[in-house]
Amino acid sequence: MNQNKRIYLASPHMSEEGYEKQYIEEAFETNFIAPLGINVNEFENELSALVGVKSAAALSSGTAAIHMALKAAGIGEGDIVFCSDLTFSASVNPVRYLNAVPVFIDADIDTWNMSPMHLEKAFDKYRQLGKQVKAVVIVHLYGLTADMDRIKTLCDKSGAVLIEDAAESLGTLYKDSYTGSIGDYGIYSFNGNKIITTSGGGMVVSDQEERIHKIKFWSSQSRDPARHYQHSELGYNYRMSNIVAGIGRGQLKVLGRRIEKKKYIFEFYKKAFWDHEDIHMMPVNDWNRPNYWLSCISLKGRLSPLEVIVALEEDEIESRPIWKPMHLQPFFAEYDYIGDGISEEIYRCGVCLPSDTKLTEEDLYRIVRIIKDL
Ligand SMILES: *Cc1c(COP(=O)(O)O)cnc(C)c1O
């Protein structure tokens, strides 16, 4: 009966209790549809309390959040910003919005995230060139984490601002800290396929309350505190609406439940493929408690990611390749890349398997069967 039911990679999953609707209802009743309102303030407070930071600004997207974090860090024209090479383009585009210069740092095979070794090499190279590195944007891919102690030490030593792109890793712990709370700034995304969604939205968090205050100012058109419309700085229209924030508050209540299900999905695949030496699960380190946003595998034998993706697609099952590294993107081809081709190797062997929190055990057996039959 389930045959050919469409299976998604990761789709929106509202709370079973209908919390999101309750918060939206309240906003309707008080006519706080927009702008801002209680849901926005409370969504910021609730998320900051959860991850353990002093302040947060709810924005229209994760991309806007990265843009504002970079601006708050003082990034401008010509500044060097080190970025993860293996990531989604949205973590790098904002560097270009500010006319700054991205430099791509290779991934590590043991973490799938930025390699501390190559980061160190990059700092050395730019020191020798006499160029200051203003910031590092580090990604925590697929709910895993980078080796943050080593990366933070390197950033501190060089005086670079550390921005964590935790768009994919809300709820992930690195040792005892939530991703996004470790660097100077952290950002989250609530896009439709993320672990929780507001239909679209983002958040910047930081312990520097004054900087978050400034981000809120820029994000609401940089209106000076005057009755007449006066502007002393460039403005943006990036704030989250009170309706959208209501969805976020409801979703935050079920984050723990979603992580549990994502973990169950990961463990299911791990068990199913443990005796297949050609299929490796993405690396979960012991200092890492992931949110398991997507369950990814690496194929070591003759089977290619494309064969897996196409075979699943033929049965109405959605899967995806790993992000194509930034230094291989036509748009970013002119920028420097420091590495050994590890991100490329992960990309060439990797597949993101369906990780939808609505998946049933039956669905999982169906997915695994197709891959095993190959
Ligand atoms: C989704 C994502 C973003 C962008 O978030 P949006 O809310 O879609 O703008 C940024 N970085 C990474 C790594 C992402 O996965």
UniProtKB/TrEMBL annotation:
InterPro entries: DegT/StrS_aminotransferase, PyrdxlP-dep_Trfase, PyrdxlP-dep_Trfase_major, PyrdxlP-dep_Trfase_small. One of its GO terms (biological process) is polysaccharide biosynthetic process. Keywords: Aminotransferase, Pyridoxal phosphate, Transferase. One of its GO terms (molecular function) is transaminase activity. The modification N6-(pyridoxal phosphate)lysine is found at residue 194. It holds the Pfam family DegT_DnrJ_EryC1. The active site is at residue 194. Its cofactor is pyridoxal 5'-phosphate. CDD domains: AHBA_syn. Belongs to the DegT/DnrJ/EryC1 family. PANTHER family: DTDP-4-AMINO-4,6-DIDEOXYGALACTOSE TRANSAMINASE, TRANSAMINASE. This is DegT/DnrJ/EryC1/StrS family aminotransferase. It comes from Mobilitalea sibirica.
